[in-house]
Fold this protein.
Amino acid sequence: MSAGNGFFSVEDLRLHFRTARGPVQAVDGVSFTLDRGRALVVVGESGCGKSSLARAILRLLPRNVHAYSGSVRLNGMDVMRLPEEQFRREIRWTRLALVPQGAMNSLNPVIRVGDQAAEPLLIHGRAGSPAAARQSVQEVFHEVGVPRDFLDRYPFELSGGMRQRVALATALVTKPDLIVLDEPTSALDVLTQAGIMNLLKTIKRETRTNFVLITHDIAAASEIADDAAVMYAGQLVETSRAEQFYREPLHPYSRALMASVPTLRAEKTLEFIPGRPPSLINPPPGCRFADRCPYRFDKCSEEPPMLKVDNRLVKCWLYR
Amino acid sequence: MPDEVLLTVRRLRTWFELRRWGFVRVGFVRAVDGVDFELHRGEAVAVVGESGSGKSTLAKTILGLHRPRQGEIIFEGREVGGEKDLRRYRSRVGYVQQDPYGALPPFMNVQRILEEPLAINGEANPGARMQRIREVLDEVRLSPVEDFLPRFPHMLSGGQQQRLVVARAMILRPQLIVADEPVSMLDASVRIEILQLLRGLQARYNLSIIYITHDLSTVRYFCERVFVMYGGMIIEQASTDDLLRNPQHPYTQALLAAIPDPDPENASRVRVVPPGEPPSLLSPPSGCRFHPRCPAFMKGICEVQIPPDFEPAPGHRVACWLYDERGQGGPPAPSRA
């Protein structure tokens, strides 16, 4: 992952939340690099900090932030260093966009979908006039497969799949360099999901937009993945090229996760992972997966670094 | 053993009346529109379909939560009908809901949640009730039992909550479990845990299970037979192996082709997705409900009459005119990615 031009990179990103019982380490030292035109999928189970990672990248923070540090580099520029106002004007939505989880249900119910999709253009002054904005929205709607006459409809008049396409159009309309998609298909039916995935593939091929796709669904993620990262308890435990990851996951957690995914075309023995992920308030010192790991040995009480295996990175002492 | 029929459903229709201003009838939402099947004792069947296909309404009708407009439900040889019957029937059928947290009363602890059905169904002896509660908690592996009894639902993890829901469904020793998307809100690894738990209970007590799901990939590991629903009807039913290997209905073929396995090759594939969206249940298309989206559409036939069930292979039934032996056109080659 590090061999290329490193168009987008995140280094040692941390986002901790303040709670009554102590800081929650939702994102704790996440680093990855993504080359131009590629898609990274971040897979992990609920509560591992995936959605917080999305928010940390976009600097969309709640009020109870305890710690927020690290760097987010876009084409060489560390956008974390920018003042908030400049970040809002120059980066968020125009260069880095987010399709949040459940985006199809977060459209404003009383605004026509065409007008909602035009908002980023008008707010950021990317369109000369409302008419020009409408024209751009029409083009993007066409790209994502929303019929022209849907522009003047309200969200409730659209099906889930169509609303998800509108949410995606709202992110695409400013032609950002990178879009973070948080569980873009998890609430959709199988056929609708396949349609959205086809669409993402086409957009990636034709516009070279980078994607960071965050999901719990390893099978759906393989539809678009160039690179893959596995998140566990606030940290990435493995990053590699998708074809290597899907053929042979390295980290014991990645392997266990893969073994729990049912397959349609080949029969395999399914196994679940005993135990539960640790609390992110006081995570255990050392490897956070150690308590559930079948390969645990004495070294695991120390936190493993990201170790290099060929061109992959694994946070596990087994690969020392 | 698997030949004994536990449940028969005949010509079942569950329609919901749609009114405007509270009294003018606008029409009916035909959520379940003519469903027939037999379920054997000890058998697990999956009802697979997309949202709006009527699968949850079918589950709730079978549970006696919706009243059918037409048709009959026969359980252990007796038609399920009047209020008194319904009560006896419900004690023999367990329900596992989709969202475990929503299905558990937040103000009751584990003990009360499990004690209530026993008390309502006439177990007057508190000692006997406690004994059954312990048995059932042990069975769903919520142990040590003493630790769990005083806990409230919010003090349990998602997987534990769902195991408690299973315990509640099992507490009256039912013959049949209806599980409506029991794992769709759980993480992958917890999913397998719950499905294996249900599978184990099924084998141990010769339970029948109706497993409602949108996720065909779990079906292989869990069910003997599969029913595929579309637009309120069962359009194909077959043994799981048969259905996955040799899907007959064009809709089933499209559905299977759209499901990804974890495979890096997927990134270079474009999946064939039938155009359009699932049919409106308020004014469904004439004839076969899939015909507006069907790649094998035959004009003059498919949009005219609803296809009956054909049986191209023993035990494999499909509601599609392609398999009408009197008719024209051979079956299409099954397409699978």
